[in-house]
Amino acid sequence: MLDVHAIRSLFPILQQQVHGRPLVYLDNAATTQKPIAVIERIDAYYRTTNANIHRGAHHLANISTEHFEQTREKTRAFLNARETAEIIFTSGTTDSINLVAQTWGRQNIGAGDEILLSMLEHHSNIVPWQMLAEEKGAVIRVIPIHDNGTWQVESLDTLINERTKLVAVNHVSNALGTINPIETLIAKAHATGAKVLIDGAQSVTHMPVDVHALDCDFYCFSAHKLYGPTGVGVLYGKRELLDAMPPWRGGGEMIKSVSFEKTTYNELPHKFEAGTPHIAGVIALGIAIDFVQSLSWSEVTAHKQQLLDHATALLLEIDGVRIFGTAPHKAGVVSFNVASHHPFDIGTLLDQQGVAVRTGHHCTEPLWNFYGVPGTVRASFAVYNTLEEIESFITALKKAIHLLS
Amino acid sequence: MSIESKQQEIIEEFSVFSDWMQKYEYIIDLGKDLPVIENDYKTDDNLIKGCQSRVWLHAQLIETGRVQFTADSDAIITKGLVALVVRVFDNELPADIASTDLHFVKAIGLSEHLSPTRSNGLASMIKQIKIYGLAFSANHA
Question: Which residues 20-79 of A have a C-beta within 8 angstroms of B?
């Protein structure tokens, strides 16, 4: 069994009160809190080894570079990529997706080509492809969903065809928590020669990810949803694709040599890492990965399932509650509305009681158009949440409903 | 009654509440009591879009030279807050609307609703009221 109270004690921010109540932080799909080791690592970097990487010939530059590259190796092992050259550091999942759209996408997608997304996508996995499609005259197609928030898998056989150049979907839905059958999708896409990008922003905290076994072409995630700092993300790509892709941002670090006549570009992964990166953040991501790897995946998944089951059962006991997303395989997310109450009203009254949830459209407006509601209240769980917190949340919710009725 | 004295009146009303629940109960009741905006005025032109709740605001200059405001929201707490702001500025002179400092929201401990992260449209609504004040006083200059 996971020692949740021991884990909790590693997170200083959770020890506080909000509006005079103990903080119940259930907005983990937006961002997770940081363990003390991550916070201290950022502090230690600036106190002891701050120097620009891959450049200086001096002591501190060498140490910083070594620590930075250690995170690349930890990330490679975390995703089971074949080599560190396949791990590109970006500023986040959004940045990773835009990088692929602006390089691989502009090179490989033309007029009449199709990009397949799903109804469950976050705006950050819609808009970059719309921008590309508009520029190239390509077509966006969408995997429809069932009412329970799962893909209509049978539609894949007609949606994926010889015009499909790319399929870009999330592994886990941020709005509903659905865990999508990406293995099936990747096999079908590859059968027609399409490439697959997986938005893993919500999945990396929930389950082990093996990009080699998945055989996906690109996989993206953000450090801050994995108990790491904001401003750091990862793009995994297969070497043969990354090698063939043109660079995106130009600048220092990404070049081999520059003259006014001709610039030659650096090798992978540096080709895509122009400018000084978020060095402290990348190094701290390594510590966040250490934290996640120190836990047992089966215990983490079981714990989050228990939190989800408990919250779901208690919510369904409340009159007028409608849960959106009832897939058989879900990560720790429960999205709901209560009767005709506006999510913002519920969220405001929960906040007054120290309970932090997300309200609104969760950056997935097309999904809420499908359900015909403007948005929901979303509670999302992390490894440090307890069953008692679920009960505090439900008590606070009942009080909110009482005030609004 | 001037804008300032109406603000003082609201601050006094809120001073009797001893906890957050009483305060929000009152705001929710105000939201329920606010006369709904006429459908003719509930247009996209009058819509102030927050990220989460939406606010409609209609302004009209009447013969006395004062401005009448009607407003609505799809969230009841936002609607209650909107009712308070409307009460302060309704039936006042354009120049006063444009120049008077709105301080009661902070004084009654609800300034978090003015933060842009709240995205409930209240901050934008107040800005829009000020713009109406300026526009109507310019027309009358």
Answer: none
ipTM for this prediction? 0.90
Domain tally, chain A: 2
Q: Which residues, 6+ apart, have CB-to-CB distance to A130 below 8 Å?
A: A140
Judging contacts by C-beta atoms under 8 Å, the chain A residues touching residue B74 are 342, 374
Residues from chain B contacting residue A343 (CB–CB below 8 Å):
52
Q: Is the confidence at residue B69, as pLDDT, over 70?
A: yes
Q: Are the Cβ atoms of A344 and B21 closer than 8 angstroms? A: no
Catalytic residues of A: 363
Q: Are residues A93 and A127 in the same domain?
A: yes
Side chain identity, residue A213: A
Spatial distance between the Cα atoms of A53 and A276, rounded to a whole number of angstroms: 8
The answer to whether B52 contacts A343, with C-beta atoms less than 8 Å apart, is yes
Query: What DSSP string describes A293-353?
Result: HTS-HHHHHHHHHHHHHHHHHHHHTSTTEEEE---SSB-SEEEEEETT--HHHHHHHHHTT
Asked if B52 reaches chain A (Cβ–Cβ under 8 Å), the answer is yes
pLDDT tens-digit map of A237-286: 999 999 999 999 888 878 888 888 888 888 999 999 999 999 999 999 99
Which of A197-201, B121-125, B132-136 shows the lowest mean pLDDT across its residues?
Answer: B121-125
Does B51 qualify as catalytic in the annotation? yes
A175 confidence band (pLDDT: 50, 70, 90): very high
Q: Can you give the pLDDT at residue A261? A: 87
Spatial separation of the C-alpha atoms in residues A177 and A69, rounded to whole Å: 33
Return the CATH number at A228.
Answer: 3.40.640.10
Q: Which of B47, B51, B131, B138 is catalytic?
A: B51
Query: Are residues A244 and A273 both part of a single domain?
Result: yes
Residue A361 pLDDT grade (very low, low, confident, very high; cuts 50, 70, 90):
confident
